[in-house]
Amino acid sequence: MTRIALIRHGETDLNTVGRIQGESDHGLNDRGRAQARRTGALLAGQPDAGQLRSQTGREWDAVVSSPQRRARETAREIAASLGVVPSAWIDDLCERRYGAAEGLTFGELFDRYQVPEQRRRQGFALDWLISHERIDGAEPIESVRSRGLRALALIAETRAPADAVVAVAHGTLIRCTLEAIEYDEPLHLENGGGILLDRTVTGGWRVVSQIGGSSER
Known about the structure:
The chain is an alpha/beta fold and 217 residues long. 39% of the residues lie in helices and 14% in strands.
């Protein structure tokens, strides 16, 4: 069955200052490149980075990514560790489009859209604003979930059944994809972290393990 390591891109300067990225096309900073190399080492099973490969029992056959620069740069770093060449950009792996909210910090977002204090404390305020059609040009969450599922299906359909593929994407895209496969454990991946997925005999997906660290949302 197809195995996919769904990886969040490394850090950018916008991540560092907490700005909403969406469709923006910034590259990795030095820490982001180091995170990508660390993830590549984990996936390669290098002794100083853990034994993920021995856990999976497989080599990695391909590295694909979102076409956005931060994902492509992460994919290149990971591919170098694995000794493969990044093979494709998949548009459906792009980050969610945040429209008029892109470039804002969450503090600026809360002030501009007058987010109630209770909603701020509950989290997912950006999802809430978009669901209430408050942000011009933002992508509905159902669209993001559908794109995530399409990307997984495309990878599985264009690879041999036993292939293992690294797919570099974005935090919200990964979260929405996990929601779409009904994985309901709360998780916020750090830059460079990821999730290991196996395709089931019925064509669905199951979470095998986490790759790298996570932090509270």
